[in-house]
Amino acid sequence: MSEFTHLNEAGHARMVDVTRKEPTVRAAAAEALVACAPPVVAALRDGSVPKGDVLAVARVAGIAAAKRTPDLLPLAHVIGVHGVAVDAVVEDDGVRITVRVSTADRTGVEMEALTAASIAALNVVDMVKGLDKSTEIRHVRLLSKEGGKSGTWTRPAP
Prior knowledge:
Elements: E1 24-35, H1 38-46, H2 54-67, H3 69-72, E2 83-91, E3 94-105, H4 110-128, E4 136-146, E5 153-154
Antiparallel strand pairs: 1-3, 1-4, 2-3, 4-5
Helix pairs in contact: 2-4
């Protein structure tokens, strides 16, 4: 089991010790798609969602979520989240949320980016569920990561 870094010799979960690693610049991007019915898309576009500015709330929620990742994921490290950008765009089939998180620390920010995208998407659902309870999150996925010993990775185009 030694190849699984989050397990000790007995197979028990542990937080990997990154104390001796040198901080390096790292970044990650993730996205989520919130699928919405055409009337919800229309309400998002014309600003008539009763709960208010859905995209603004989603952006702020995503930023807050990136900073709270270790509170939600017990094996995630507490790191300095030095930059978070959350973009939420209304498309014909719903809202596409794209997140980029950056740091100069000992471990990457993939989980911070995924957490931010997830929570931003959940906030969209929360704010439009009164208009359509069938609104759903179609995917949350990592788009890319940079830095660290594994270098750069980008999701292949479909």
